[in-house]
Amino acid sequence: MDIILGMMRDPYRHISKKCKRLGSDLFETHFMMQKAICMKGANATALFYQNSRFCRRNAMPEPVLATLFGKGGVQGMDDKPHQHRKQLFMSFMDEHSLAQLTRLFEKQWLQWAEQADDQQEYVLYGVLQEVIARAACQWAGVTLHEASAQRHIRDLVLMYDQDGARGLGHFRARRARTRAEKWMAGVIEDYRQQPPQPFPLSAIAHHRDQDHQLLSLDVAAVEALNLLRPIVAVSVYILDCAHALHGQAQLKPQLLEDDQLLDSFIQEVRRFYPFFPVLLARVRDTFVWKEITFEKDMRVILDVYGTNHDKALWQNPDQFRADRFVNWTPNPYTCIPQGGGNPHLGHRCPGEAITLNLMKAAVRLLCQRLEYQVPEQDLDLDWRRLPALPKDKMRITGVRLNS
Ligand code: HEM
Asked: What family is it from (predicted)?
């Protein structure tokens, strides 16, 4: 049976369940009616990130390109051209730039909290999307005009929040991408009329590929969205932080006092909560690993959630333990919520520093500055949703700002 059918029912746990049934972390299957291999665990991750074994060209199915990733972006590139393009993203991760984005995020959130009505109920997920999107646009050098701001923010969200939906949701994500690419193409064109400015969007507009050519307008727009869209998606992890903190009042002062514990808490949120279920690549040339033949061009599916919850790597993996990472020795192949290996050489996410910084700032605000109540609601995770979220997306009331 095609693995996609099982993954539609249970996107995060289907592969691990099948591994358990088969007694193996590696099995052959079909994906979209073609032969494929599923695998999970640290060894499988180390293999997956060997550039000599796998490539990313044509690995993603069309529905993912039409919504989440766009066409012609860094995700589908290989070898030297990939590393050159990747350097563009890595260049935005210097300390000064990261601190600036974090400051803008804190400022936006405090501004929202200051004017929030303590009698009103808010959906925390929606609030975070808007706060982060505004900060991200300002940081990247994109002007949000009030008349169209809500529309643009909604499109940035739809591309990652509805890409895995079926039916109407998926169709809305496709239309959001078409509109957002048009919006970004306009911004890129504007920057190309001016000398380079100290903003990421200007850097993308003026970036030249290995052949010294400017990116086509379409591809530049895709890369601009590859920066803005995932920053807005950090709202999911911040929502998860709030979810993990709920009912853990004793944890809040500890996190504020102990920076190591705060770092560990954030890592545990990224390990524990589901976000990307799997990653895809294609086999370059036929080889055999653990008695399985990886045939040229076959798709390989790495179980991200399963690796982050692998019993061979984590004690009681389905338990949330804030201090799990306090004495952890970093390993690029075990905790892989944003991919594994080396981000400069492979496809590992270039935005981990942004993600961690925003999460850290958000937890401090949630523990110290923001007072709020969480009314009765369904906080269970919706496991069929991509990304999985608490069912009621955390409704909060009584919002007040502590000085
Ligand atoms: C790639 C997750 C935040 C930009 C990836 C990958 C994952 C991931 C799983 C694929 C790794 C692979 O294919 O091997 C996440 C999660 C985030 C997040 C869960 C938090 C919400 C960010 C941020 C940025 C970003 C803040 C902004 C720079 C990218 C880009 C790629 C990528 C451009 C493609 C890299 C490549 O193909 O070389 N991310 N990411 N992500 N991420 Fe993130």
From this structure: Belongs to the cytochrome P450 family.
